[in-house]
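Priority: low. Protein: SnoaL-like domain-containing protein. Input follows.
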Amino acid sequence: MIVENKMEPKEVLKKWIDAFNNADIDALANFYSDNAVNHQVANEKPVIGKQAIKQMFENEFRQAKMICIPENIFQDDEWAILEWKDPLGFRGCGFFHIVDEKIIFQRGYWDKLTFQKLYNNDEK
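Result:
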Protein backbone atom coordinates (compact mmCIF):
# COMPACT_ATOMS: atom_id res chain seq x y z
CA MET A 1 0.00 0.00 0.00
CA ILE A 2 1.39 3.39 -1.03
CA VAL A 3 0.62 6.27 1.30
CA GLU A 4 0.82 9.65 -0.33
CA ASN A 5 2.09 12.41 1.92
CA LYS A 6 0.34 15.64 1.09
CA MET A 7 1.91 18.96 1.90
CA GLU A 8 0.39 20.90 4.74
CA PRO A 9 -1.09 24.30 3.77
CA LYS A 10 1.87 26.05 5.41
CA GLU A 11 4.29 24.15 3.15
CA VAL A 12 2.21 24.93 0.03
CA LEU A 13 2.33 28.60 1.01
CA LYS A 14 6.13 28.51 1.36
CA LYS A 15 6.40 27.11 -2.17
CA TRP A 16 3.93 29.76 -3.40
CA ILE A 17 6.21 32.43 -1.89
CA ASP A 18 9.21 30.97 -3.74
CA ALA A 19 7.29 31.09 -7.05
CA PHE A 20 6.11 34.64 -6.29
CA ASN A 21 9.63 35.85 -5.52
CA ASN A 22 10.84 34.33 -8.79
CA ALA A 23 7.95 35.96 -10.70
CA ASP A 24 7.17 32.45 -11.98
CA ILE A 25 3.64 33.07 -13.21
CA ASP A 26 3.05 29.53 -14.47
CA ALA A 27 4.14 28.02 -11.15
CA LEU A 28 1.98 30.52 -9.26
CA ALA A 29 -1.07 29.68 -11.35
CA ASN A 30 -0.55 25.98 -10.72
CA PHE A 31 -1.04 26.51 -6.98
CA TYR A 32 -4.68 27.49 -7.59
CA SER A 33 -7.68 25.23 -8.18
CA ASP A 34 -9.53 25.78 -11.46
CA ASN A 35 -12.32 27.73 -9.71
CA ALA A 36 -10.18 29.53 -7.13
CA VAL A 37 -11.08 32.99 -5.89
CA ASN A 38 -8.40 35.60 -5.20
CA HIS A 39 -9.78 38.66 -3.41
CA GLN A 40 -7.30 41.44 -2.79
CA VAL A 41 -9.47 43.78 -0.75
CA ALA A 42 -7.68 46.87 -2.07
CA ASN A 43 -9.16 45.98 -5.46
CA GLU A 44 -12.84 46.38 -6.22
CA LYS A 45 -13.67 42.82 -7.20
CA PRO A 46 -12.29 39.35 -6.57
CA VAL A 47 -10.54 37.52 -9.40
CA ILE A 48 -12.24 34.20 -10.13
CA GLY A 49 -10.70 31.19 -11.83
CA LYS A 50 -7.17 29.92 -12.31
CA GLN A 51 -6.73 31.55 -15.74
CA ALA A 52 -7.96 34.94 -14.53
CA ILE A 53 -5.63 34.72 -11.52
CA LYS A 54 -2.74 33.91 -13.85
CA GLN A 55 -3.60 37.00 -15.94
CA MET A 56 -3.74 39.09 -12.76
CA PHE A 57 -0.20 38.01 -11.83
CA GLU A 58 1.02 38.72 -15.39
CA ASN A 59 -0.37 42.26 -15.15
CA GLU A 60 0.99 42.88 -11.66
CA PHE A 61 4.50 41.65 -12.42
CA ARG A 62 4.59 43.94 -15.49
CA GLN A 63 3.85 46.91 -13.19
CA ALA A 64 6.36 46.25 -10.42
CA LYS A 65 9.11 43.96 -9.22
CA MET A 66 7.35 42.45 -6.24
CA ILE A 67 9.12 40.56 -3.47
CA CYS A 68 7.46 38.85 -0.52
CA ILE A 69 9.50 38.64 2.67
CA PRO A 70 7.55 36.49 5.12
CA GLU A 71 7.42 37.85 8.65
CA ASN A 72 5.06 35.23 10.05
CA ILE A 73 3.41 32.14 8.62
CA PHE A 74 0.67 30.43 10.58
CA GLN A 75 -1.55 27.46 9.90
CA ASP A 76 -5.02 26.70 11.19
CA ASP A 77 -6.38 23.46 9.71
CA GLU A 78 -6.87 24.14 5.95
CA TRP A 79 -5.81 27.79 6.25
CA ALA A 80 -2.34 29.28 5.91
CA ILE A 81 -1.89 32.86 7.05
CA LEU A 82 0.97 35.09 5.92
CA GLU A 83 2.23 38.39 7.30
CA TRP A 84 4.67 39.89 4.81
CA LYS A 85 6.75 42.90 3.88
CA ASP A 86 8.81 43.84 0.86
CA PRO A 87 12.27 45.40 0.57
CA LEU A 88 10.76 48.92 0.55
CA GLY A 89 8.89 48.32 3.81
CA PHE A 90 5.48 47.80 2.20
CA ARG A 91 3.43 45.42 4.36
CA GLY A 92 0.35 43.26 4.19
CA CYS A 93 -1.17 39.94 5.07
CA GLY A 94 -2.85 37.12 3.22
CA PHE A 95 -5.19 34.29 4.07
CA PHE A 96 -5.03 31.14 1.93
CA HIS A 97 -7.64 28.37 2.09
CA ILE A 98 -5.78 25.33 0.77
CA VAL A 99 -7.41 21.96 0.07
CA ASP A 100 -5.54 19.03 -1.49
CA GLU A 101 -2.48 21.25 -2.04
CA LYS A 102 -4.48 23.78 -4.10
CA ILE A 103 -5.49 27.29 -3.12
CA ILE A 104 -9.26 27.52 -3.39
CA PHE A 105 -9.60 30.96 -1.81
CA GLN A 106 -7.16 33.77 -1.09
CA ARG A 107 -7.76 37.12 0.54
CA GLY A 108 -5.09 39.78 0.82
CA TYR A 109 -4.94 42.97 2.82
CA TRP A 110 -2.58 45.79 1.82
CA ASP A 111 -2.78 49.52 1.17
CA LYS A 112 -3.20 50.43 -2.49
CA LEU A 113 -2.19 54.08 -2.05
CA THR A 114 1.08 53.10 -0.38
CA PHE A 115 1.76 50.57 -3.16
CA GLN A 116 1.18 53.24 -5.81
CA LYS A 117 3.45 55.74 -4.04
CA LEU A 118 6.26 53.20 -3.57
CA TYR A 119 6.08 51.83 -7.09
CA ASN A 120 5.10 55.04 -8.94
CA ASN A 121 1.97 53.44 -10.34
CA ASP A 122 -0.24 56.47 -9.76
CA GLU A 123 0.43 57.57 -13.35
CA LYS A 124 -0.84 54.30 -14.90
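The first strand starts at residue 32 and ends at 40. Residues 9-119 form a domain with the Nuclear Transport Factor 2; Chain: A, fold (CATH 3.10.450.50).
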